[in-house]
Known about the structure:
The chain is mostly helical. The chain is built from 3 helices and no strands.
Amino acid sequence: MLGVNAMANDAALRITDTAMRVCGGAAFSDHLQLERFFRDARAGGVMAPTADVLYDFYGKALTGQPLF
């Protein structure tokens, strides 16, 4: 589950970043929700647990190390 969460966050970041580049200034328009999706995807990188922490937990779980 930890790995899936981290990978989903990474995918959301890549997809929304690409969409913002493709749409240009129109991506910030009120009639598109793209800017909100972009902002929400970025929140996953700064809100606990961050993707880096999830990857750390995932690696420890795979190698049999204690999580804490």
